[in-house]
Amino acid sequence: MGISRRQFLQATASAAAFSAVDGAMPLFAEPALQTCPFRLSVINDEISQDFEHSCSVAAHDFGLSWIELRGMWNKNITDLSAKEVDESRKILEKYRLRVTDIASPLFKVDWPGAPLSSKGERRDQFHADADFKAQDGVLERSIELAKAFGTRRIRCFDFWRLDDQKPYRAAMNQKLREAAARCEKDGMILLLENEMSCNTATGAEAAETLAAVTNSNFMLNWDPGNAAAAGETPYPNGYKLLPKDRIGHCHCKDVVRKPGGGYEWAPVGGGIIDWRGQFRALAKQGYKEAVSLETHWRGAGTPEASTRISIKGLKQDLESDGLGC
Question: What whole-number distance in Å separates Cα of residue 290 and Cα of residue 314?
Answer without folding.
Answer: 13
